[in-house]
Design brief:
The radius of gyration is 23 Å and the shape is globular. By secondary structure, the chain is mainly alpha-helical. The chain has 13 helices and no strands. Pfam families: MFS_1 (PF07690). This is Major facilitator superfamily (MFS) profile domain-containing protein.
Length: about 300
């Protein structure tokens, strides 16, 4: 005869203050991932208007319509003449340098979140990324090498956001809710990807390419203030937590008041085939997705001959 552990039943919404506080945390996490993507991909679009249409480098320029495309609304199109004479190779270094930093902090970010709390690591990561994003126009006007360095640091900062977010979810989401709450948080990245390019087009039209870095950075800093004021690492430390919801989460996850992170089993991790299978699969998925995300605006301009509005 097998024993079956039953998950506790969630209390009525009225007893949880009508809107459960774990939903508040996950919605803020959703917005955090959204702003994370706004900070990291805005340059992929903005660089189209940052660079001059032709440059004075030794690079061979083929000024033909490669795919025989023309802008359908050519009469209203705006040819944005940028400030910089960067070759396509240099542009690729600038947009791709983000990932030189990003790839190194995913695993350390998770460990830091275990030791010091996901709230602190995620908040500080996005706050730091916002500050460096504000410096991008200054770096671009100084030298592209400095811009690449800023992009690498930006990658180092945002590489910690996802593992820190998982640390928050693991402390707040009961097992029976963890799947959809995790999905709700993660979909913020997709929403951020979808809205960033149209938003950048509007910002460039009104305030120039510099605004595509200033506006997301300021919005993210505002989010950071709300995050630190509202969110806690554990439900028991949440100032507006109702007793029924706290009891429900505690019974679902167990009392973690005296929980201590175990030592990192580094040898077991490095010799684990399932671990390396996940790494390789994730690497391949990210390579394809981010290659498309990074090169799409340049492809739209250079090959499809579309202006930023269309």
């Amino acid at each position: 005869m097998s024993s079956k552990v039953e998950c506790p039943k969630a209390p009525p919404w009225k007893d949880q203050g009508y809107f459960p506080k774990r939903y508040v945390v996950v919605i803020l996490l959703h917005l955090g991932f959204l702003f994370n993507y706004m900070l990291r991909v805005s340059i992929n679009f903005s660089i189209v208007t940052m660079v001059k249409g032709t440059n004075t480098t030794n690079e061979t320029i083929i000024d033909i319509d490669v795919c025989d495309f023309e802008d359908l609304d050519d009469s209203d199109s705006q040819d944005y003449e940028g400030d910089f004479e960067w070759s396509e190779w240099t542009q690729g270094l600038i947009t791709g340098s983000f990932y030189w930093g990003y790839m190194w902090t995913n695993i350390p970010g998770g460990r830091l979140a275990e030791l010091y709390g996901g709230r602190l690591i995620l908040g500080m990561a996005l706050a730091s990324a916002s500050v460096f994003s504000l410096l991008i126009p200054i770096a671009a006007n100084t030298h592209y090498i400095l811009l690449i360095a800023i992009r690498v640091i930006l990658g180092l900062c945002t590489g910690m956001t996802y593992p820190a977010g998982h640390a928050i979810i693991s402390s707040w989401a009961p097992p029976q809710d963890s799947s959809w709450l995790t999905g709700l948080a993660h979909i913020g990245a997709e929403v951020g990807t979808i809205i960033t390019f149209p938003l950048c087009a509007v910002l460039i039209n009104f305030w120039g390419w510099q605004s595509t870095f200033y506006v997301p950075a300021v919005l993210t800093l505002i989010w950071c203030c709300v995050w630190f004021l509202v969110v806690s690492d554990a439900p028991r430390n949440y100032r507006w937590m109702s007793e029924p919801e706290l009891d429900y989460i505690t019974k679902s996850l167990g009392d973690r008041k005296h929980h201590k992170s175990p030592p990192l089993p580094l040898k077991s991790i490095l010799t684990s085939m399932p671990f390396w299978a996940i790494v390789v699969a994730g690497w391949g998925d990210s390579w394809g997705f981010f290659t498309l995300l990074t090169d799409l605006p340049l492809y739209m301009k250079k090959i499809l001959k579309q202006d930023i509005n269309s």
